[in-house]
Amino acid sequence: MANSKRQLFIKRRLRVRNKLRRTNRGRMRLSVHRSNKNISVQLIDDVNGVTVASASSLEKGFGAVGKNNVETAAKVGAAIAERAKKAGVEEAYFDRGGFLFHGKVKALADAAREGGLKI
């Protein structure tokens, strides 16, 4: 029987997360969540279980709420890079979850790199 889209998503998410756990060397995790209307990102310290910084397209200044496009994702990526610098974080692992590294997720990662965050 073929896997459903949801089952494939969960398999991808677990595969990515497990690889990050194995190769993590004390770095923070940059976790992305993309919905149909918005995109959000968190900088998470897994050792202490604390969110250090976050950014979302729901915040003011990122364009119209519900307008989930590549430009909005790039603005969110630049914002998380700026907030990470303020928190003293220079490098992190990029946790795309079960989302493909394409389109909005890629734009967010590229903008965070341009903002000075090593991913």
From TrEMBL:
GO biological process assignments: translation
Keyword field: Ribonucleoprotein, Ribosomal protein, RNA-binding, rRNA-binding
SUPFAM superfamilies, per the entry: Translational machinery components
InterPro entries: Ribosomal_L18, Ribosomal_uL18_bac-type, Ribosomal_uL18_bac/plant/anim
Gene Ontology terms: cellular component: cytosolic large ribosomal subunit
GO molecular function, one term: structural constituent of ribosome
PANTHER family in alphabetical order: 39S RIBOSOMAL PROTEIN L18, MITOCHONDRIAL, LARGE RIBOSOMAL SUBUNIT PROTEIN UL18M
Subunit description: Part of the 50S ribosomal subunit; part of the 5S rRNA/L5/L18/L25 subcomplex. Contacts the 5S and 23S rRNAs.
Function (record text): This is one of the proteins that bind and probably mediate the attachment of the 5S RNA into the large ribosomal subunit, where it forms part of the central protuberance.
UniProt xrefs under HAMAP family: Ribosomal_uL18_B
Family assignment from sequence similarity: Belongs to the universal ribosomal protein uL18 family.
Name assigned to this protein: Large ribosomal subunit protein uL18
Organism whose genome encodes this protein: Sulfitobacter donghicola DSW-25 = KCTC 12864 = JCM 14565
